[in-house]
Structure formats: C-alpha cells, structure tokens
Amino acid sequence: MVILIFLTFVAFVIGLSFYLGNKTKTSSGYYAAGGQIHWGVNGIAFAGDYLSAASFLGICGMIATVGYDGFLYSIGYLAGWIVALFVVAEPVKRLGKYTFTDAVDSKFNSRGIKLAAAISTLVVSVCYLIPQMVGAGVLVEPLLGIPHHWGVIMVGAIVITIVATAGMASTTYVQFIKGGLLIVFSLVLVIAVCVRGFSTRPDQGGRVPFHEYATIAATEVDGQVVPADASFRVLEMQTVAAAKRSFVKLAKDGVESWWLVARTSSAVTLHEIQSAVTSKDGRKLVNGQPAGPGNLLRQTGNIVQLRGSSTAVTGSVSPTGLLSAMSDKNTRVSTWRDASLTDKDGNKVKLYYPIELAGNVLMRPGTKFAVQGTWLQRIDFVSLMLALFLGTAALPHILIRYYTVPNPAAARKSTIVAIAAIGFFYILTLFMGLGAMINGVMNPADSNMAAPLLARSFGDLLFAVISAIAFATVLGTVSGLIVAASGAVAHDLFDRYMQVKMDDRQKIKAGKISAFVIGALAIVLGILFKGMNVTFLVGLAFAVAASANLPAIIMLLFWKRTTAKGIAASILVGVVSAVGLIAFAPDMYKQYGLDPTTAPIPFSNPGIISIPLSFITLVVVSLLTRRAPTATESAQA
Amino acid sequence: MLHEPAAKTGKDPAASYKTRIGVWMFTLYAAFYAAFVGINLYDPLLMEKTIVFGLNLATVYGFALIIVALIQALVYDLMCRRREHLLRDKAPEGAQ
Questions:
Q1: What are the structural domains of chain A?
Q2: Residue of B nearest to A85 (CA)
Q3: Which of A88, A133, A348, A418 has its CA 20 to 30 A from that of A339?
Q4: B88 to chain A nearest CA, in Å?
Q5: Is the pLDDT score of A154 beyond 50?
Q6: CB nearest A82 (choices: B29, B45, B57)
Q7: Using a CB-CB distance cutoff of 8 angstroms, which residues of chain B are in contact with residue A365?
Q8: Which stretches of A439-503 are DSSP H helices?
C-alpha cells in the first residue's frame, strides 16, 4: 500500500506536468508561467519552493539530533522572508522579466552583469540542488528498498521530465499542491505526537519493542579495561579524539561487539552501543552480525527521565506541555552520535553511541553551535544566522517566482501568504523534530529520515503519505531550481550574453536542453554527497546566495552611484569568496575524508566574511568606475 | 536592448512610500533578530529561563520571531494598500 500511494502521487505530478506542458507555447509561459498566476496560489507555491528537503527532512533531523540548535535554521529561514518582503519583492518584480539577471541588469544592459549573474545563479542553484538530491536518495532507500544512488537517479529523471515538459507553469502547480499537503500533514503528525505523549520506554505504538541497552561493570588496570563479567573477552580498545571517547571491542560466544567506556572517579562501566563494520574484503556487519534486511541498525532516541521520573508514561499532552517538559532540567534525553575508526585488523568501523542531554541544555542554543565556546565558534554562529537572514531574498528560484504574478502588489501579497504558510510550518518542525527524538524512531546513521520515520511509528498510511509528500517536496524544489538554472544558461547566457539569435520555440528548446544537462549534474552530485545533513548543505547555499546576489540587489535599489562593473565584480567576489571559504572549511574537510582540524579556514559558515566583502567590492569598484556626468546631466541636476 | 518586465505594471506613485516604510520595518525586525543572536552570544544561559506556560526564553523568542514577522507583514500590506488607494483616488482621471 505504501508503494501504491507513493507511485500514485508521483504519477499524478507527472500527469499534471504533461497536461500543463501542452499549454506552454511561449518562452514567457516556460520561464514565468505567463506572469498570470494568482497571488494566493503563488504564495503557497512559494512555500512549496522554499520548504525543501532541507526544511522537512534536514531541520526535523537536526532538531531530533541536537535539539534547539536545529530550530535555529527554522528561525533564520523564516526571518529571511522579511528581507524578501520589505526590501526585494516589489522592486524586483518591477525591474525584471524572467530571471535574477534581468533584474540586476535592468538599468545597465551590461554583458559583465549578465555573465556574472548567470554564473552566480548556476552556482547557487547547484549548491541548493545537492541537498535536495541527497534527500531524494535518503527517502527512496527505505520506501522502495532501492539503493541511495537509484533514488537520486529516479528523482533526477522525473524532475527533468517535469521541467522539460512545461517549465514554470507545471512547477508552480506542483509546488502549490505539495506546499499545501506538506503543511496539512505535518500538522497531522504533530497532533499525533501530542496525543501519544511521553514514554521513557517508547515502542512506536507497540510496533517495535523498546531495546534496553546493556551495561557491564569493569575495572581499568594500567590503561587496560577488564569487564567484571568474565564471559566477555577484550579484543582491543581505541580512543577517538574527535568524539573525545574511548571504545572497547569485546567478544562473547563468537560475536564481536563494541562498547563505550564511561569513566567516573570511582568506577568504569561499559555501555552497549551499535556498530557498522566494513571489512577489508567488503563484508558488512551490523552489531556483530551480517548486515541485511533482517539485521539493520536499531532505531534510537528516547527520554531517559521525564521531570526526574525514569518510568513515565503520560498519555496525551498539550503542545506547550510537550515543550515545557522537554525544557525541564530534570528531563534527560538519550540522543545518538557517531565516531569512525579503523580496527587493528584494518576494518572500517562506524560506531553509534548514546549521549544524555538535560532538557534545559537541549532546548536552548549550544549543543551544535558552541555559543559558549571560543570566539571563532561564536563567529561561526553569527555567520550562520547572518547568511540565513540574508540568503532567502537572494535565492534565484525564489526570485523568479516574483515574475509569475501579474504585478508588484501581487508579488507583495504572495510573499505575505508565503510568510504565513512557511512560518506555521517552521513552528511545526520543532514538534516533529522533538517527536522523532523521543519516540525511538531515529536511524542513527542518517538524521535526514527523522520525519518520515516518525510518521511510520504511527502506521504505514501516514508513512506513505508523508513520504510521498517529502518526495514531492524534493521534486518541486528541484524543479524550481532547474528552471532557475536553465533560465540562467538559455536566457541569460545564450540569448542575452552571447546574443545567439533564437526564435521563441528555440528559446524554449534551449531551456529544456539546459534543464537536462543541469539535472544530470545534480544526479551525480547527489550521489557524491550522500550522508551529509541536508539542512547544513542548504545553509551553505544560503551563504553563497547572500554573498553573491544580495549586495547587488540592495545596492542597485538604494545606492545611485552603483555601476555595472561594481555589480559584476561584487557578484563574482561573492561567489568565489563564499565557495572558496566553504571548500577549505572543517566540515568540508570531513567530507573529503581529511582531518577537520587541519582545515585552513577555522569556521564552516562563510557569510560573515563573504557578504561584507561583496558589499565592499561593489562600493569600491563603483566609485572607481563611476562615469563623470555629461554637461546635460549636470545641468539637469 | 534592455529587457522590459514580463508584465507592464505602469508607474507606481506609492513606490517611494512603500520603500521607506519597508526599510523602517526591515530595520525594526533586524534589530529584534540581532537581539536574539546577541543574547545567545553574551548570556546563553538566559535562554533557559522559563517565561510563560513553562516555555523557556529560547522557545518563546524563537516563536516570537516567526509570529512578529507575520504581524509586521500584515501591517506593511495594510499600509501599502491604504496608500495605493489614497493615491489612486487622488490621481487625475486617465493617469495610472
């Protein structure tokens, strides 16, 4: 049934695309849906565009793993709409035609701006595409039982079909349907979480028995751990510096298992954890047994103590009651982290171990972003919040949606509808994330599946619907991004920068070919970046957008001395500096398989450097390249 | 060859007014947002303090940032519409 519901939904989306495709005969229809979408529909479509895999999968996953710090993304993403509404919406609508490039180039007709803005649109779109494709693979893997890379390929193929058939018209209606469904069913999920309430031994409504992890007393002599239970034999012990923890491998009855070493001043205890081992000959073991459909990593996450009680079962709770109990200093939650090592036989080992967090710590910033850490860590936090705030109004796939409505007032109203819809959804993310954290549904190897797995704990029907919506979320956002990117290539580069002579049909064809190529690129990148939290990746895309595009838009609107060369230079400096800083940051070093402490850039979010740098570049270059006013202009002034 | 807008919208006599209040409202919200970031940096433990209905400051402030955004958006729209109607009524017949 799950697969049937899922496939029906996908078939409906593709059918809608073909239907609307038959109506798309002009380039205006392809790139801007003819500029005739109603503001209410466009507002919900904005929400559909914006509530991407990063919001639904990534934020819920991050909240489920680190608590309130994940919610900071919700706050920042929503706050960014203020910039879009108060500063960007109406002017961009007045200035542009199809793309971001049209808007920033409207006063200049500069080849430099066309090239720079098209490059920026492409880079931002691709940065944003990666997490969507990663999310697609993550979703399809458990749903259809196919490997991650096939999920990515499937999404890529469907999206290319959608975009190549009807462009912005089909993308808009797919986003409208998806955005509406996402909000409604997220609310259903939150209600279900509140009705279920709290349990310190969550069993997914009786579907999955609660697993009690074992603990063994031990002693430590000359750095060697000796379990009190003599039936366990110690094979090796390792300390993982990045995790600041020691682990010991034990054997009992021919089964090898890994344990976390916990030391206090008076005792040593060993805690059972989970492991995934890939041996040198490629065999995979999960928790000491061959991996397979019947032996997967156990789902994790539960409340250890609820307001001091370790045997609590509450029944339904109110939304404020849920948040209040989670914030209590006597509430303790078990959430899981991972550590990697190579054992003495040369096998690659990934360990998953629980940590306990008190409610008061979990429900304020600090578990992921070290707001009490070094000044560099604090700068990283400020940098993230800055990029989230300024990034929204600079995202190409959001900006092009201002061209699908008939006038600036409609652009403004659709932004307000978007704020209402998106804001409501982001409030729900806190409940969904915390629900996933405490209901024993988390896959410790991949936080991105938090919301769909939470839905599965309430039954297959909700799981199927939520997964289909999440899949449509990816489809819709990727469609919008590919329309934006194909517009940058076909409209900005071919038509306007290179001035290739094309009639209307050829322009549409160029857009469709571009969509195909960009879609193929997205598939490859989606496979390569498997495993990274998707909202973290989107946060980086926001930083690139805020650095490359926002200074150009803002200064064009508010500083009369802005020149074409100033805009082109600021866009290029913004793109290069943001991408460069990300490429050499600790989080990317981890992705390359290098030691993150050796990364030359000490923080992961580039916005605090690249955004001001782009503004400064625009001002300096504009002042240097300012044309002296002609005699007529001087007389008029 | 400049690329004209997709849809002709005509001159908007309220544009400068809307820009002005837009900048003011943006500044107001940016200050509210900056205060949130500032509290987290300078006194993160303050965020643990229970404010109302058992909710801590972090949760209340986070929700407030979302709700205030919507309230400001509605106020902004109301002000824009009033000015648009006012100027449309004052405009001479035939003018846009």
A1: 2-197+370-626 (1.20.1730.10), 215-362 (no CATH)
A2: B73
A3: A133
A4: 14
A5: yes
A6: B29
A7: 40, 44, 47, 58
A8: 450-456, 460-487
